[in-house]
Amino acid sequence: MPECFTRTAGQGPRKSLFIHCSLSSGKSLLPLMEHFSEEMTMVAVDLPGQGKSPMPDTKRDYQNQCVEACIALIEQSGGPQDLVGHSFGATVALRLAALRPDLVRSLVLFEPVYFGLLRDAGHPAYNRMQAEEGAFNDAVEQGDMLKAAELFLTRWGLPGEWERLPEVARTAMSERMWVIPAQHQAIIDDSDIRMRLPELENIACPTLVMRGGDSPEVMSAVTGVISNTLPNGALDVLEGSGHMLPITHAADCAKRMRGFWGM
Fold first, then answer.
1. What is the rounded CA–CA span in Å between residue 134 and residue 232?
2. % of the chain surpassing 90 pLDDT
3. What is the distance of C-alpha 21 from the center of its chain?
4. What does the pLDDT read at residue 35?
5. What is the pTM of this model?
């Protein structure tokens, strides 16, 4: 698999890897990373097929390829490292910690969209989430990726982001929507490749799980299940923020992270 594009920030002795959300790139996390430039040397990766990174192998599971790419980066620069992940990127960080605990010093997970773990926990939010995503899934199944992009960004993006996008940007986003259904087997479906809830009990590193106080209800459920299952998990809620909290509230998030890391 070709190497992913990366951006490096900071010159401190402590190493960390930042993993972005879907339909984005490592660039989105650079303002957050700036808050640790003296203490840390940080790498922000563009996941396969996102940002400036080459496309993944469409015959292989997408999340697995993302995890493999991140493992390669840590092995190349040396570990263990602090992993910071946002949304889908947080599921990549969590899966990496389960597979290679030797590479992970700590985890900071901003709203990991590991919805399948709600199914494992028998949480009623799983069925409600599936119903809420019905229109999006229908649009994908019908091949209406422009509608799918609108529905996705309205629910998970920045407030009013879709309305502000020019037509050319909307078209470009619709062309990138393949990445969302490509994740489903690994994070939502009852598939053989999805990590199961009991596997979290073996992830011993200190973990900070953060969510926005204004995020969709399902995020309250999934962050609660994850933080309560991890042996050293802690949940922090940033009121007045939503799903994009590490981007919209970078300074507030950095303050919480600094306390978690003891800086």
1. 35
2. 95
3. 5
4. 97
5. 0.96
Q: Which fold has domain 6-121+196-261?
A: Rossmann fold (3.40.50)
- The pairing of strands 207-212 and 104-110 is parallel
Whether 98 and 71 have beta carbons less than 8 Å apart is answered as no
Smallest CA-to-CA distance from 98 within 228, 225, 194, 211 is with 194
Q: What tokens were used for 35?
A: 């808050």
Q: Give the max Cα distance, the chain.
A: 50
Cα–Cα nearest to 204, from 229, 184, 168: 229
Break the chain into its structural domains and give their ranges. Answer: 6-121+196-261
At residue 46, the 3 state secondary structure works out as coil
Which is it for strands 81-86 and 104-110: parallel, antiparallel or unpaired?
parallel
Question: Which contiguous run of DSSP H or E holds residue 82?
Answer: strand 81-86
Pick from 162, 140, 178: which is nearest to 50 by CA? 178
Beta strands 6-9 and 40-45, pairing class = antiparallel
Do the beta carbons of residue 187 and residue 111 sit within 8 Å? no
Least confident segment among 8-17, 97-106, 127-136: 127-136
What is the C-alpha separation between 45 and 27, in angstroms, rounded? 8
User: Tokens standing for 148?
Assistant: 């799918």
- Alpha helices, DSSP H only, in the chain? 30-33, 62-77, 88-99, 116-120, 125-132, 134-141, 145-156, 161-164, 167-175, 179-187, 217-229, 245-248, 250-261
pLDDT one-digit tens code per residue, 128-180: 999 989 999 999 999 999 999 999 999 998 888 899 999 999 999 999 999 99
| Alpha-carbon distances of 141 from 49, 117, 145, rounded to whole Å | 21, 24, 9
Residue with tokens 């989105």: 28
